[in-house]
Amino acid sequence: METEYTYQILLLSEFLLAPVVFFSLLFKTAPYGRHARPGWGPVMNARFAWIAMELPAVLTMGVLFLYNIDSLHPVNTIFILLWEFHYLYRTFYFPMQMTKIRTDFPVVIVLMAVFFNVLNGYVNGSYLFDIRPAEDFSFAISSSFVGGMLVFITGFVIHYRSDRTILRLRTKSGGSRYSIPRGGLFRWVSSPNYLGEFIQWCGWAILTWSLGGLAFAIFTLANLLPRAISNHQWYKSQFPDYPAKRKIFFPGVY
Ligand code: NDP
Known about the structure:
The chain is mostly helical. The protein has helices at 2-27, 46-67, 74-97, 107-131, 143-173, 192-208, 211-238; strands spanning 43-44, 105-106. Strands 1-2 form a two-stranded antiparallel sheet. Helix 2 runs parallel beside helix 4. The longest helix is centred in the middle third of the chain and has 31 residues, at 143-173. 33% of the residues are buried. It binds NADPH dihydro-nicotinamide-adenine-dinucleotide phosphate (NDP).
């Protein structure tokens, strides 16, 4: 009962956080990567920043899983495998692929991300392991499970391939310069890595059929769409030959 009350309060907080983050980021781009600028307090190495930001998501879900292991239904292990797969990729694989690591990543951004990842990990994990009624195996062939899984996998593939294209630009040039990414979904939008991540968490929301999943998908859009707008404007300001027809986020639309 107490868990359910805490869950509801934190779930509501996550829904309310999304518009705050969206409008804040529309007016002030998060100051890391190409948008880094002084005046944001202490800074750190970007590789360690990514590890520190994302590890709490791995741990929060992992701890909730272990805490509830005695009452765990097998369907829930599928959820946790998908979650941990994504966050192990983001925490370890992605930062290890980065070259020419920046040292100007603001600690305040890391702290905000840690806060969000603990909140979001708790909201999604406590619902799945503690509150959600136990499903029988027929859930694994339901349209929400199968459809959500397909959307999640499609999002991850887009996201992973776009990350890889971007990271290879630096490997090829051997320097710290930026260049225009091409191929894959970059043909249509400036930030397909963000789009893939959004699709992935929409898949998670459908797959888990949970309000926590919906809150996470909405938050991901609120966080990434303003940055995609800033990235698009930045590319156009830096590269006179930037493809004119390339949209910001949604292929052919925006
Ligand atoms: P970016 O694509 O801006 O940067 C990723 C890496 O590629 C950085 O090392 C960056 O270098 C380098 N890079 C970017 N563009 C170019 C280019 N044109 N030429 C050469 N190198 C380039 O992504 P983010 O750092 O914003 O995000 C990384 C991942 O994290 C994304 O996949 C995103 O989806 C995910 N993410 C998810 C969030 C969520 O809310 N779920 C929030 C934020 C990120 P440099 O650092 O020097 O710019």
